[in-house]
Amino acid sequence: MKPSQDNYVPTHKDLAVDFVNGDFMSSLKSLRSFAKGEIIAPLEGLTRGPKRYTSVQCGKGPDDHIELNSDLVYINHSCNPNVAFDLSSRDPRQWHLRALKPIKAGESLEFFYPSTEWDMDQPFNCSCGASACLGKIQGAKYLSKSDLLARNWVNPYILQLVAERDGETRLRSRL
Ligand SMILES: C[S@@+](CC[C@H](N)C(=O)[O-])C[C@H]1O[C@@H](n2cnc3c(N)ncnc32)[C@H](O)[C@@H]1O
């Protein structure tokens, strides 16, 4: 579920969707400043569902995908992100959105999609404009461990999948 522009009511006090005409052109902006490390929002009202362009992966399993059911779904990807979805706790009540750097009022919130997603439903050519932009964004499966670790936050289940992938590669090369 993606909140629409019709009769829009923000789901989070300090955040607002910047609706732009055109497919996937909208974004989520901060209405106040946040300090580095500050929790911007707990993740509440989540539902399980299939992998979609709106879902967020929350574990290693095929069914480990949640829908945010809020304005947070409008957070775009950046290769130089300013926020992270931290789904590292075993307790979903601890899952949250956190600032990775100081954020000013009016700034767009952007997270590094491969920090949650292994193999994305809807890959795209990134337009984040960062100097270290990775180009095509399709999920962590397609990136090196060093490219992932350079983005300040990667969820532990993604790092486990990377370790399994890289272990298999080493084993195969020995055969
Ligand atoms: C969950 S939506 C994010 C909100 C989206 N901008 C919208 O208006 O609905 C994810 C989609 O937004 C687009 N998107 C997000 N970040 C992007 C980026 N850095 N470059 C290009 N497209 C991006 C892609 O089409 C992606 O599949």
Automatic annotation (TrEMBL):
GO terms for molecular function: methyltransferase activity. InterPro entries: Flavunoidine_N-MTase, Post-SET_dom, SET_dom, SET_dom_sf. Transmembrane segments: none annotated. Residues 122-138 form the Post-SET domain. PROSITE patterns: POST_SET, SET. One of its GO terms (biological process) is methylation. Keywords: Methyltransferase, S-adenosyl-L-methionine, Transferase. It comes from the Eukaryota. Residues 1-114 form the SET domain. This is Post-SET domain-containing protein.
